[in-house]
Amino acid sequence: MENVSQAKGAEPVAVLTLRTVKRGNEEKFEAALHDFISESLHSEGQLGVHVIRPPTGSDSREYGIVRRFISREARDNFYRSELFKKWEEKIAPMTEGSPVRQELTGLEAWFSLPGREATVTPPRWKMALATVVGVYPTSMLVPWLLQPLIGKLPPLLQAFFIAAGIVVILTWAVMPLLVKLLERWLLPREEA
Question: Hey, what CATH topology would domain 13-104 get?
Fold first, then answer.
């Protein structure tokens, strides 16, 4: 397995792949995805995988798979691998159309707008401003909420739990809500 320390000049890369699962194949796809992720995380150059499932109660059957690599070379090697080719063959009967794949940079992972093409993202300054609007109140709320639970822990552990709390709340609550509320502002009018 490759050392996770990066080669000089190499930067981590995140790739979002969108897949629409055929109706009635959701359980089979979930099982296949679980097995594939378990097997593929041992591939050289992997930094992790995050699965974005369709919202509960919605009619959407679109899955987002965000995979992080230590470099572009590791990304390319993975998508050319036999393991990945076998995965594509296995799920082809369970999915509709071709996958939509996009490289994510920085904040884009939080700003995929519902019902939009994966390639449509807001300008970076708008993403940064919206993120500040989400982070500011969250960074005040989380320490206040956690203090009674972690107040007697060493400062480094307190900082860890506060950071983890902020990330969890931003990822699953604050940013999805903000993106939905600010959708018309985030995208230029001709794209909205």
Answer: Alpha-Beta Plaits (3.30.70)
